[in-house]
Specification:
CATH architecture of one domain: Alpha-Beta Barrel
Shape: globular
Structural class: alpha/beta
Strand content: 5-15%
Distance between the termini: 12 Å
Radius of gyration: 19 Å
Number of helices: 11
Number of strands: 11
Oligomer: single chain
CATH superfamily of one domain: Luciferase-like domain
Length: about 325
């Protein structure tokens, strides 16, 4: 199992931390993560959010790229349907070059209608827009002239350069776990990538569906599960829970307010339920959680220590302690 650190750079209204400190800490923590042995830094995107949820992924990735040498950079997820795919292809290629070929692009179709309204994109077209955008990314990264005629996008003959260092293009992770989305994931040879609000039971069901589709479609690539989780380590499980709960609450209540069809009100008051969603506790408790995820076949575990309202110093300490004190589960597969 490979470990990554995850950042969303949220800072709710009234927080004493402030976004300048949040972004400074993210850059410091990714440099530390590389030295600590983490394999990934993963960042995620939303727009017009009251807590300033990270809206400019390639800006932050470029800053991280020039401060690191080995750690892989990934998006999980970039909302591809909100953007012009040619512009995404160009910006991703530049980040891949700046990083020396370390970028993996995780992309999703999106679900929050206000973001589509603000970006002046028809929400009803997001399925077709997503499919065409994926095709255009792959065409653009060839660096050769092409034209395109689709239902959403029409381009005369163009050429897109520079091309990424990675050939034939930047590796793609695809978001979504509906039957249609999972089929597309398997067709692209991408990992299963459930959400941070999917509990262990839901993740298990997602992987069963993923495995069935891999069998039906004759998938030849590796079986991979990339899983994001809120995380915090402390001397005692009680102390870890006390420190983490405000950040967990801020994250889950934000997602619920955006229309996610899950009610977290009961979950937030019951640690037996929360332990199915987060990795929070003393090193032994966290180790037990990691072993459960290893048994599911998790290949890449993305850990968000930098939760909203959690002081950067607490997140940094937890990040260091996790890698030092929670041993890796047995390898479940290879990294894409």
């Amino acid at each position: 199992m490979k470990y990554g650190v995850l950042f969303s750079c949220q800072d709710p209204p009234g927080s004493p931390i402030g976004h300048p400190a949040v972004y400074a800490a993210a850059l410091e923590q990714v440099v530390a993560a590389e030295a600590q042995g983490y394999e990934w830094v993963n960042i995620t995107e939303h727009h017009v959010a009251a807590d300033g949820y990270l809206p400019a992924m390639f800006v932050l990735l470029a800053a991280m790229a020039v401060r690191t040498e080995r750690i892989r950079l990934s998006t999980g997820m970039l909302i591809l349907t909100l953007h012009n795919p040619i512009r995404i292809a160009e910006e991703a290629a530049v980040v891949d070059i700046l990083s020396g070929g370390r970028l993996t692009l995780g992309v999703a179709a999106g679900y929050r209608e206000v973001e589509f309204a603000v970006m002046q994109v028809d929400y009803r077209t997001r399925g077709r827009r997503f499919r065409e955008s994926l095709e255009l990314l792959e065409l653009a990264w060839r660096g050769e002239p092409f034209s395109y005629t689709g239902e959403i996008f029409q381009f005369p003959e163009i050429v897109v350069r520079p091309v990424p260092i990675q050939r034939p293009g930047i590796p793609l992770w695809l978001g979504g776990t509906t039957p249609v989305a999972l089929r597309r994931v398997v067709e692209y040879g991408a990992p299963c990538f459930p959400g941070a609000t999917d509990d262990i039971g839901v993740v298990t069901a997602r992987m069963q569906a993923y495995d069935q589709l891999r069998s039906e479609l004759g998938a030849q690539g590796p079986r991979e599960l990339v899983l994001p989780r809120l995380a915090l380590v402390a001397d005692s499980t009680e102390e870890a829970r006390r420190r983490a709960l405000p950040g967990i609450r801020a994250m889950f209540e934000t997602y619920q307010s955006w229309g996610l069809p899950v009610d977290f009100s009961r979950t937030l008051g019951d640690w037996d339920l929360l332990d199915e969603l987060v990795i929070v506790g003393d090193p032994s408790h966290c180790r037990e959680s990691v072993e459960r995820y290893g048994a599911l076949g998790t290949t890449d575990l993305m850990l968000q220590f930098a939760m909203p309202t959690v002081e950067p110093s607490v997140a940094a300490e937890s990040q260091a302690r996790f890698m030092a004190e929670v041993p890796a589960a047995p390898a479940a597969g290879s990294v894409r």
